[in-house]
């Protein structure tokens, strides 16, 4: 069998079906950017590879997938963080123009190139932790011009980093100040002007459906327009209270429903019936010191696929570490390390609608692979603040992780 690349003597965690599926002393053959063979070294077909990488027993996993981020934004909110810890009440910070609207102002003022330049080191940190695909949302422009500029920044990042980017339009993230008191008018702007312009530029449409965001009825209206434009949908739901957005989104064919601290059993039955992925974001839970966790035991009982993501954003989860999110999913939410790894591979791929192409190590899949200096896959979730990743292969190409 002729091939471009042979990974020789690796321990393989395929993650097929959400399980490690461990093979010790294994091999992976890659040709034309695709995995063509995975199995035991002893069963390796006679292979002529142009390049061989000696695995020396290192662990090979699918390239990790961060399926929920807001990693492109202007400015940061460290001042606000400091003020809060000095005891300044949130209302006072908001009255001074803090909170999400300060990020909106900074993002509106930045060029696309400046937004990309600020996001690049954050994404490099994810790449050093084995990430080969990430989702990025707009939502700090809240006007057409800036929302498009955010997408342009994502396109620049996809061009020069060894990472695949899934782009999501989150125009309904917050109400822009110029629409104060006119929420329905802003929803009309999102539906009638922004979504038609975003179709062709992004992969999906998301809505922040909360009492402090947009209602279930407004979310449904936005989703109907998104679907008419051929875009898939996803939702921020049940984070701060139970609104019913997750079940509505699942019923409308959402790829994923995200946050879910307050989701209930009847919503979960809907997710189970529709195969919708539940995306848990432990970084936000940690940062906000939330005591109400998503119901992991019920998610298991209903066999809902669970993904984990960083939710990287300047306000509630300034976390650019997928391994930290996995550790928090285990320590704060009670996931097993196997569930956490499935949450950043096979189930995260499904949350982006890319499960036929990425997320597992199988013949026919895109050759996105991370190599780790560990003996067991549990070590990926076990360490805090340490990446054991030694090599990333993206589309069959070995990439320097310090690039
Ligand atoms: Zn989010």
Hetero groups in this structure are: zinc ion
Radius of gyration: 21 Å
Shape: globular
Broad structural category: alpha/beta
- Low-pLDDT residue intervals, each spanning 5 or more residues: none
Can you tell me the CATH architecture of the largest domain?
A: Alpha-Beta Barrel
Please name the CATH topology of the largest domain.
Answer: TIM Barrel
Q: Give the helix proportion (percent range).
A: 25-40%
CATH evolutionary superfamily of the largest domain: Metal-dependent hydrolases
End-to-end separation in angstroms reads: 32 Å
- Count structural domains: 2
Q: Overview of this structure, please?
A:
The chain is of the alpha/beta class and 403 residues long. The chain has two domains: 103 residues, Urease, subunit C, domain 1; 288 residues, Metal-dependent hydrolases (TIM Barrel). A hairpin with a 2-residue loop joins β15 and β16. The strands form two sheets. Strands 1, 2, 3, 4, 5, 14, 15 and 16 form an eight-stranded mixed beta sheet that branches. It binds zinc ion. The site of zinc ion has 4 residues, from loops.
Outline the fold blueprint:
Elements: E1 2-12, E2 23-31, E3 34-40, E4 48-54, E5 59-62, E6 64-66, H1 78-85, H2 90-95, H3 100-109, H4 112-128, E7 131-137, H5 144-160, E8 164-172, H6 183-198, E9 204-209, H7 216-228, E10 232-237, H8 245-251, E11 256-259, H9 265-274, E12 277-280, H10 282-287, H11 296-301, E13 306-308, H12 322-331, H13 337-343, H14 346-351, E14 369-372, H15 379-382, E15 389-394, E16 397-399
Parallel strand pairs: 1-4, 1-5, 6-7, 7-8, 8-9, 9-10, 10-11, 11-12, 12-13
Antiparallel strand pairs: 1-2, 2-3, 5-14, 14-15, 15-16
Bound molecules: zinc ion.
């Amino acid at each position: 069998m002729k091939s471009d690349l042979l990974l020789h003597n690796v321990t393989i965690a395929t993650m097929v079906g959400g399980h490690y599926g461990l093979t010790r002393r294994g091999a992976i053959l890659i040709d034309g950017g695709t995995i063509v063979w995975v199995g035991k070294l002893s069963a390796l077909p006679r292979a002529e590879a142009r390049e061989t990488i000696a695995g020396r027993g290192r662990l090979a996993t699918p390239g990790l997938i961060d399926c929920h981020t807001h990693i492109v934004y202007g400015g940061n909110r460290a001042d606000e963080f400091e003020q809060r810890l000095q005891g300044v009440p949130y209302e006072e910070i908001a009255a001074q123009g803090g909170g999400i609207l300060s990020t909106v102002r900074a993002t509106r003022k930045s060029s696309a190139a400046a937004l990309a330049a600020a996001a690049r080191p954050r994404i490099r940190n994810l790449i050093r932790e084995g990430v080969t695909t990430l989702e990025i949302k707009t939502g700090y422009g809240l006007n057409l011009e800036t929302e498009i500029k955010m997408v342009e920044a994502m396109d620049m990042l996809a061009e020069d980093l060894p990472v695949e980017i899934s782009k999501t339009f989150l125009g309904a993230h917050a109400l822009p100040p110029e629409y104060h008191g006119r929420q329905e008018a802003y929803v009309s702007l999102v539906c009638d002007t922004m979504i038609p312009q975003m179709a062709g530029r992004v992969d999906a449409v998301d809505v922040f459906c909360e009492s402090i965001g947009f209602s279930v009825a407004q979310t449904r209206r936005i989703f109907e327009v998104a679907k008419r434009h051929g875009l898939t949908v996803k939702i921020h739901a049940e984070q701060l209270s139970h609104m019913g957005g997750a079940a509505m989104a699942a019923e409308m064919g959402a790829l994923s429903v995200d946050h879910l601290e307050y989701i209930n059993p009847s919503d979960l039955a809907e997710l189970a019936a529709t195969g919708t992925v539940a995306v848990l974001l432990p970084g936000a839970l940690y940062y906000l010191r939330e005591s109400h966790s998503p119901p992991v035991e019920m998610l298991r009982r209903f066999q809902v696929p669970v993904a984990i993501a960083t939710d990287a954003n300047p306000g509630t989860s300034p976390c650019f570490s997928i391994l930290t999110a996995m550790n928090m999913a285990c320590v704060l939410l009670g996931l097993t390390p196997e569930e956490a790894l499935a949450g950043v591979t096979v189930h995260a791929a499904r949350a982006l609608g890319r499960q036929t192409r990425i997320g597992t190590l199988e013949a026919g899949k895109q050759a996105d692979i991370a190599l780790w200096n560990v003996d067991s896959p549990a070590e990926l979730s076990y360490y805090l603040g340490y990446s054991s990743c030694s090599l990333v292969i993206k589309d069959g190409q070995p990439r320097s992780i310090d690039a």
